[in-house]
TrEMBL record, chains A, B:
It holds the Pfam family Put_DNA-bind_N. It is found in: Cytoplasm. This is Redox-sensing transcriptional repressor Rex. Homodimer. Belongs to the transcriptional regulatory Rex family. The gene is rex. Residues 17-56 bind DNA. InterPro entries: CoA-bd, NAD(P)-bd_dom_sf, Rex_actinobacterial-type, Rex_DNA-bd_C_dom, Tscrpt_rep_Rex, WH-like_DNA-bd_sf, WH_DNA-bd_sf. Modulates transcription in response to changes in cellular NADH/NAD(+) redox state. It comes from Clostridium paridis. Residues 80-180 form the CoA-binding domain. NAD(+) binds at residues 91-96. It comes from the Bacteria.
């Protein structure tokens, strides 16, 4: 498959949604779908869908539409979901435990370690993985190849943990701490800022009322 | 304060970030800040900052910059953080419990109920709130004024819960289920789609490697 560069973040952010909808069509034994039909389900315009997918290759066929199984599998491969990513979670509080228990296997998540500073949590097992002392994080990173680090520690400790992950060779960080992390160029960070999400909700809710 | 309409979602989504940075400046006893200094901290350009804030009023003063306390308080009020929002969480699994334990009080969150279908969870208390049977959700909504419903149930049940919340008079929905909910016009929904977030991370991580 030919690779196209400079794809906008807006398009990239829509890919997982295509993946999800196509996965549901597959489950319902739908073989093919036109951009118009897909548009009615997913809520983007048909022309937007064609444009988005054209960024990555020549998928549809005029008069036939998209082959659902093929497009789903192509998007999986574009997203990189067909590989495995060794992942550790740092911070085994509520969010950390929720992430550990969540089934992200579809995204290639291979959870291999959980770390926390709280002696009450160290030694407990979540999905068969023992929570380790955060003091052992650096040596763990030295001895294991880790692709993704999930930061679920309080905001005051987040940058320190981030620095250790970067130094330990982690390539991507999924950050749940309410801070913007400083990372070297080329490092991938995806933030989930729950407070910002709920503030947006509250703002929109107030607009409707006035 | 004069209200301006038709503010883009992109600007709205940046407001919580301004709020967070200004809150930190306040904590560090910073009285005033220029758009240039704020730009260096927050990572938006100074002109972007001036443009964003101008959507909501006339805050800065040429040669003085922004009064940190005043701007922070104005943004709080624009976001609607100075009010209280009666909130219930439906689904007391990992994510639901994490949200219940998280401190969203700053966003005006007033957690008044948690619901689940699992008999093992019903009756347990989280932050002094007893988990109630989801079968009692409708009557609870009838007897209580609820502003925000947080949906943390599995995706197959999400639409049903959403319909009950809408019918029960809830005004805003914070949705953690990996589905796009159908809601009547005028209903506010803010999605946190964790699978999509991690897929974006995985995609970007793969781009870096090639």
């Amino acid at each position: 498959m030919e690779k196209k560069k400079n794809i906008s973040m807006a398009v990239i952010k829509r890919l997982p949604k295509y993946h999800r909808y196509l996965g549901e069509l597959l489950k319902n034994d739908v073989d093919r779908i036109s951009s118009k039909e897909l548009s009615e389900k997913i809520g983007f315009t048909a022309s937007q869908i064609r444009q988005d997918l054209n960024c990555f290759g020549d998928f549809g066929q005029q008069g036939y539409g998209y082959n659902v199984r093929e497009l789903h599998s192509q998007i999986s491969s574009i997203l990189g979901l067909n590989k495995k990513y060794n992942t550790i979670i740092v911070g085994a509080g509520n969010i950390g435990q929720a992430i550990a228990n969540y089934r992200f296997d579809k995204a290639g998540f291979n959870l291999v370690g959980i770390f926390d500073a709280n002696p009450k949590l160290i030694g407990i097992r979540i999905r068969d993985i023992e929570i380790q002392d955060i003091d052992d994080l650096q040596s763990f990173l030295k001895n294991n190849h880790i692709d993704i680090g999930v930061i679920c520690v309080p905001k005051l400790n987040a940058q320190k943990v981030c620095d250790e992950l970067v130094q330990g060779g982690v390539k991507g960080i999924w950050n749940f701490a309410p801070v913007d992390l400083n990372v070297p160029e080329g490092m991938t960070v995806e933030n989930v800022h729950l407070s910002e999400s709920v503030m947006t909700l509250v703002y929109l809710l107030n607009q409707k009322e006035e």
